[in-house]
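Data deposition worksheet. Section B asks for the primary sequence of the deposited chain exactly as it was used as input, without tags or linkers unless they were present during the calculation. Section C holds the resulting structure in token form. Section D is free text for depositor observations; keep each observation to a single sentence. Incomplete worksheets are returned to the depositor.
Section A, Depositor: J.P.
Section B:
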Amino acid sequence: MKLIVHTGAAPGTVLVEEPQVLNVPDVEFVLRGKCSTPAQLIEAVRDADAALCSSEPFTREVFANAPRLKVVVRYGIGVDTIDLEAATEHGVVIANFPDFCIDEVANHALVLLLDCAKKITRLDRTLREKGWAAARNALTPMGTIHHQVVGLVGFGNIGQALAQRALALKMQVIAYDPYVAADVFEKMGVEQVSLQEVAQRSDFVSVHVPLTAETRGLIDATFLQAMRPSAYLINTSRGPVVNEGELIAALRDGTIAGAALDVYQTEPIPLDHPLCQFDNVVLTPHSASYADATFASMRRRVAQSALAVVRGGLPEFVANPAVLANRRR
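Section C:
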């Protein structure tokens, strides 16, 4: 029997798709509850062959104490809570899904951009609380959307998908990404620029980078101070990519016009968080990737990847390809 454990489901969670896939004679599937610390994870995966996870801290210590573990399958794209180097050293395959929710996140980023541009949330609040005249008085300043500049920080799959949408709205798109070839920018009709140029030239800055040591705090006071006072910051990537304290300071002193955020430095964001006090900030609960059908498909794919590995095969995607030379079997 192969033991596959789930380390990210809170008590009482009812899973549908995963048990359907893993209801096979040679597999035992067990929910270990929400493991929020390495110690809890060690206890959960000590005898496991595979683990399904969301944002749990799979540290070097965890891998060192899981001698049977062959694969950790991450729901979604990001693997910033997993020590990939330690996993590789211990022969553990890390599976993720870089093709997951590309259109959903690009759509969400576009919705946030349009909300900022047309002040939808702000006007709705004002109309309900203060009436028609106050809402009309809040219209200006407001740009045209078409011919305005969208600056992308990160030009991977989601950044490119957002670029397609912005170009369809007759917007100008510029982007910064040192890891994407110049011909990709050229083919899409997107101008490749420096990070500083994104800050200086954009009416809307949209962030689409993974969380790494290099990108943590990338959007800081220096970047924000270089932005136009009429510009908006949109983040649907990872919260710590933006220095939250410096963003709050920029909003307080009017350095930028506003922000729209789906991700935060600490989640869930509390009701008394300073970001909740700004009328010119739109907040959503880390939901950019969500669509019912998309998540149902993801849950099936996660289970299928775990099953493939414990039976000697490979998942759809491997986040640490160097492990393939010495992976556990």
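Section D:
The longest helix spans residues 292-310.
The radius of gyration is 22 Å.
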